[in-house]
Amino acid sequence: MIDGNTLIFATPGDPVAQVRLPEVMEAVFAALGVNAVWVPMHVGPEGLAAVLQGLRTIRNFRGITVAIPYKPAVGAMLDRLTPRAQASGSVNLVRLDPDGKLLGDIVDGAGFVRGLELCGYAVKGATAWLVGVGGGGSAIAAALAEAGVARLYLTELNKERAAAIHERLGRYYPKTPLQIVHGPPDRVDFAINATPCGLGPDDPMPFDPSVLSEKTVVCDIIMKPRETRLLQAAQVRGMRVHHGQHMLDAQIPMYLEFLGIPFPDERAVMEISSRA
Questions:
Q1: How crowded is the C-beta side of 98, counted as CA atoms within 13 Å?
Q2: Nearest residue to 161 (alpha-carbon basis) of 141, 189, 183
Q3: Distance CA 241, CA 218 (A)
Q4: pLDDT for residue 209 is more than 90
Q5: Which fold has domain 109-246?
Q6: Quick one: CA torsion of 249, 254, 258, 262, rounded to 10 degrees?
Q7: CATH number for region 7-107+251-275
Q8: For the CA atoms of the chain, what is the radius of gyration?
């Protein structure tokens, strides 16, 4: 029940129809007994600054997650960034601190890596090919480097974006072997789609899984639809796949911790979110 004490959280993006978080957080808040709502906000570029200004001024507005395409842009509008947000060049979490400053963080990458680990996959020492280094992709690249991958291959059509993430990763994770490639590497443990290709039913696949080794785990960060064309094609070939929902489920405890909402433990929260 919404009343005068209800706390407001939101996810601005363009589009937001694919965002699964509001329904997940409704279930999480109900289970935890938190009087709060999580609202999707379909916001054009001209409205993003207004959302952040609202976070500064609306007293029961506590924080936001950021959806596509704004993760790379939000950081410049904030007062402080965590080290991993600086390394990735993107933000997907914003809160208002007691001193009135807006703090930005990103846990897309940490959630993706944690989701793999919870599904039994070892990231440390593995090789990964990441396609797309926009907001979510850049965070995943930084998290894979932090987790200790043996080698990281990146594919990005935007040359400026590719150069920027290559420079940042080289600065923050100089020991991680990193290579920009224009096609699939010969052999990788994980092939990851971090592009929007797959949100629409007629979207082309970001890459063809048939060119990869059958032992490669094909990952997609898209959550709606759950079974993207990429994952369907990989499964037809008998390959292991990793769904986008795992990244979100693993992030929910990270969101709660960042936003100061008490919760019992990681597993309990993830069990709630996975059922939503």
A1: 1
A2: 141
A3: 5
A4: yes
A5: Rossmann fold (3.40.50)
A6: 80
A7: 3.40.50.10860
A8: 18
pLDDT for the residue numbered 191: 98
CA atoms of 47 and 63, how far apart (whole Å):
16
pLDDT for the residue numbered 45: 93
Residue bearing tokens 């129809």:
17
Tens-place pLDDT, residues 58-106: 999 999 999 989 999 999 999 999 989 999 999 999 999 999 999 999 9
CB of 109 closer than 8 Å to CB of 84: yes
Tell me if 64 sits within 8 A of 11, measured CB to CB. Answer: yes
Q: Which of 71, 159, 175, 215 is catalytic?
A: 71
Identical fold, 7-107+251-275 and 109-246: yes
Active site annotation includes 71: yes
Amino acid at 76: A
Instruction: Read off the tokens for 134.
Output: 């926009």
Q: Domain limits of the chain?
A: 7-107+251-275, 109-246
User: What is the greatest pairwise CA distance in the chain?
Assistant: 58
Residues 6+ apart with CB under 8 A from 132: 155, 156, 193, 194, 195, 196, 206
